[in-house]
Amino acid sequence: MRTRVFTTTMIAVGLALIASSALGQGAPVRVFASNGFRAVFDDLGPTCERSIGHRVSAQFGTSTSLKQRVAAGEAFDVAIMTSEAMEDLVKAGSVTAATRQPLGRSGIGIGVRAGAVKPDIKDAEALKKALVAAKAITYAGDGASRPHIERMVSTMGIADVMTKKTLLEQGSVRAAEKVASGQAQLLITLISEILPAPGVDFVGPLPAEFQHYVSFAAATGTKAANPKAGSALIACLSGPNASAMLKAKGMER
C-alpha cells in the first residue's frame, strides 16, 4: 500500500516538474497591458501560460503610458490596449496589423470606499446630486475614460464645481487608492478597473445617457522576439473560454 502511494506521488511530482520545465523553455512572452484589462489578464494568464507552453511577463499601465514606452523603443511581444491606442500603434508600425484581435469592452462606473453608503446614481439627476455632494472625486488623468467623464460633468453644468474637488491621478490604480484611503468619496473609471480594486465597492454603471464603452484589442509587436507564442497568447485571451471571465470582471464582447 505504501509503495503504491509513493509511486503515485512520484508520478505526480514528475509530471509537475515536466510541466514546469516546459514553461521554462525560452524567453517569456513580454506583454504591455492596459489597466482596464488587468483583472481579466491576471485570472486568465496562468491558464494561457500552460496552453501556449511559455511563461508570460506582463507590465500594466494606462494605454497612454504604455504607448509612450513603445515609442521609446522598449521591447514587447504583445500589446493589449484600447482600440484607439492600438490603431495608433498600427499606424506607427509598432504592431502587426494582421495579428490585431478585439478582446472586449467595459463601460464606465462609480466606486466608493468599501463599506461606505452607496449613493443613488440611477439617473442623471441622482448622479448629479451625488457628484455635487461628494467632498472629492477622483479618476485617472491619463485614462481612456477621462474625456467622457469631463464631457458628462460639463453637460450637467457642474464643471466648475467639480474641477475644484477633483483629484486627478496617474492611472486608475492610484485613483482607487484615493477612495480606499478616504481621501476621495467617489471613483469614476472603467467598471473593469473598479471591481478588482482593493478597498473599493462598486456602486453601478453610469446612467445610459452618460455611458460610454472603452474597447480593448491585442496585437503582436513588429519586433516581437516570440511572435508565434505572442499570437498563441492572443488566441487564448480572445477565445470562447474567456467569455465568462470577461463578464465576471465587468467586461463584455
Would you spell out the secondary-structure blueprint of this structure?
Blueprint: H1 2-24, E1 29-34, H2 38-52, E2 56-61, H3 63-71, E3 78-82, H4 83-91, E4 101-113, H5 124-133, E5 137-140, H6 146-156, H7 159-163, E6 166-169, H8 172-180, E7 186-190, H9 191-194, E8 200-205, E9 213-220, H10 227-238, H11 243-248
Parallel strand pairs: 1-2, 1-3, 5-6, 5-7
Antiparallel strand pairs: 3-9, 4-7, 4-8, 4-9
Descriptive report:
The protein is an alpha/beta fold and 253 residues long. The protein has 2 domains: 26-105 and 215-248, Periplasmic binding protein-like II (D-Maltodextrin-Binding Protein, domain 2); 106-213, D-Maltodextrin-Binding Protein, domain 2. It contains 11 helices and 9 strands. The chain has helices at 2-24, 38-52, 63-71, 83-91, 124-133, 146-156, 159-163, 172-180, 191-194, 227-238, 243-248; strands at 29-34, 56-61, 78-82, 101-113, 137-140, 166-169, 186-190, 200-205, 213-220. Helix 2 links the parallel strand 1 and strand 2. Helix 2 packs across helix 10 (227-238). The model is unreliable at 1-22 (pLDDT under 50).
